[in-house]
Amino acid sequence: MRQWPPAMQLMGIGWYVATCIVLGVVGGVLLDDELGTGFALTLVGLALGLATAGWGGYRMLQDLFAAQARQRQDQAERRPPSEDAPVDDEQDEEERA
User: Fold this and answer.
1) Do residues 46 and 25 make contact, with C-beta atoms less than 8 angstroms apart?
2) How far apart are CA 61 and CA 58, in angstroms?
3) Do residues 10 and 46 lie in contact, with contact meaning Cβ atoms separated by under 8 Å?
4) Which letter does DSSP use for residue 97 in this model?
């Protein structure tokens, strides 16, 4: 499966964070209205939304960073060695002999 570009992945993380926070707050407000608890459950919903957003965003960023590192490594392995690159010591010894 083809990877999304990094900018799209970061936008997805942003939407995920916003959605978690909004759902937590809205759920807390609705429960507060039903149970008549003031704004206590709104704060609990906010805390749960922030915790979920933080943990999920962290995991998504780790996956993004790992994918970028794999992509850079794959590109480095496919790149032919340049003439300016240092030569192995074994090749130097063979050339001197």
Assistant:
1) yes
2) 5
3) no
4) -
Q: What is the pTM of this model?
A: 0.70
The closest of 67, 51, 53, 47 to 12, measured between CA atoms, is: 53
For residue 67, give the amino acid letter.
A
pLDDT tens-place string over residues 61-85? 999 899 888 888 888 888 766 655 5
Q: pLDDT tens-digit profile of 37-64?
A: 999 999 999 999 999 999 999 999 999 8
> In sequence order, what are the residues at sequence separation of 6 or more whose Cβ sits closer than 8 angstroms to the Cβ of residue 28?
39, 41, 42, 43, 44, 45, 46
**Spans of all domains in the chain:** 6-76
Q: Whole-angstrom Cα distance, residue 28 to residue 31?
A: 5
